[in-house]
């Protein structure tokens, strides 16, 4: 009887972990993306090179600008690797320097640390989260809010 109770409790806990709510999923994705954005801004300053980020659909990716002024994907940093979002969550750049942007834009993070303000938006069926920059290259998370 005790063994069955222990197995039942373990199964219940495992189910609870795998059955995360949509709000928790989008909140977790927002926090991970915010941390990656801050890391990318610091990396741009440390390496003295422009780093960029693009987001479209269910994924985002970080880029580095080469000496030939062309963007190349960052592959040598685990935090900045290309990332697919949780099922049902999408992301897009919404604003850069106060202007609406195209979905395929690469938002630059300059080595000087003086970056234009930007806004990215994460969306699920029920929730929305806005991520914006401040003057100190911190990423501010607004949400999740119900859609």
How does this structure look, described?
It is a single chain. Strands 1, 2, 3, 4, 5, 6, 7, 8, 9 and 10 form a ten-stranded antiparallel β-sheet that branches. The protein has helices at 2-18, 22-47, and strands at residues 51-57, 59-65, 71-73, 83-84, 90-96, 99-100, 107-109, 118-123, 127-133, 139-146. It has one domain (22-146): minor pseudopilin epsh fold, CATH 3.55.40.10. The mean pLDDT is 87. The chain is globular and about 70 Å long. It has 147 residues and is α+β, with helices and mostly antiparallel strands. It contains two helices and ten strands. The longest helix has 26 residues, at 22-47.
Q: How do the strands and helices of this protein lay out in sequence?
A:
Layout (H helix, E strand, L loop, with lengths): L1 H17 L3 H26 L3 E7 L1 E7 L5 E3 L9 E2 L5 E7 L2 E2 L6 E3 L8 E6 L3 E7 L5 E8 L1
The helix-strand sequence is HHEEEEEEEEEE
CATH class: Alpha Beta
- Specify the CATH homologous superfamily: minor pseudopilin epsh domain
Number of domains: 1
Helix percentage: 25-40%
CATH topology: minor pseudopilin epsh fold
CATH architecture: 3-Layer(bab) Sandwich
Q: Give Rg in angstroms.
A: 18 Å
Shape: globular
Q: Kindly report the average pLDDT value.
A: 87
Report strand %. Answer: 35-45%
